[in-house]
Write a structure and sequence with these properties.
It is built from 2 helices and 11 strands. By secondary structure, it is mainly β. It has one domain: Alpha-Beta Complex (Fumarylacetoacetate hydrolase, domain 2). The strands form 3 sheets. Strands 1, 2, 3, 6 and 7 form a 5-stranded antiparallel beta sheet that branches. A hairpin with a 5-residue loop joins strand 8 and strand 9. The two termini are 18 Å apart. The relative contact order is 0.24. The C terminus is likely disordered. Keywords: Hydrolase, Metal-binding.
Length: 182
């Protein structure tokens, strides 16, 4: 598994085709999120031109901190995110470094689907992501102001899935279906 530390934007009211300048009217608050990815599975299905969203969708793959009301965050585009694995800092970045800002994410997402109250949009991760996590690792993560005020934290342990996971792909050859195991 690999980790990506991200800011979560909690939607406060339904919205479709939200304009950039109206983004703040649709935000209830924020949360710290850890976007976990089964990278080996993701690479396998991407190489076969298959959808890879399931590589991020296993149970427990996106732990989220407690909710932070938007009034408690002065500038969501200037927050420090960090993650430690077994006490070693693996990633530290600022939301100001992200490719897309929150107004653009809300505009874009709401142009595709109606945002609903309670939805969570993860912003993507600052530089330095893709750290490996294995069974037994202690994971600690935090969200802070640039001055060091802690806004959210999360602590947990990585664990293997009982029974593991086997990827089975349906392959079609000359109009006949066959199942192959990868």
């Amino acid at each position: 598994m690999h980790h990506e530390i991200e800011l979560g934007v909690v939607i406060g009211k339904d919205g479709k085709d939200v304009k950039r300048e109206d983004w703040d009217q649709y935000v209830a608050g924020y949360a710290l999120g850890i976007d976990m990815t089964a990278r080996n599975f993701q690479q396998l299905v991407k190489a076969k031109s298959l959808p890879w969203t399931s590589a991020k969708g296993f149970d427990t793959f996106c732990p989220i901190s407690d909710f932070i009301p938007k009034e408690n965050i002065k500038d969501p585009m200037n927050l420090v995110l960090w993650i430690k694995i077994n006490g070693e800092e693996r990633q530290r970045g600022n939301t100001a470094e992200m490719i897309y800002d929150i107004p653009e994410l809300i505009r874009h997402c709401s142009s595709i689907m109606t945002l609903q109250e309670g939805d969570l949009i993860l912003t993507g991760t600052p530089a330095g992501a893709l750290g490996l996590v294995v069974h037994g690792d202690k994971i600690s993560a935090g969200l802070e102001t640039p001055e060091g005020e802690v806004l959210a934290s999360w602590d947990g342990n990585a664990a293997d899935r009982v029974g593991g996971y086997v990827f089975i792909q349906n392959a079609y050859v000359a109009g006949q279906a066959r199942v192959s195991q990868q």
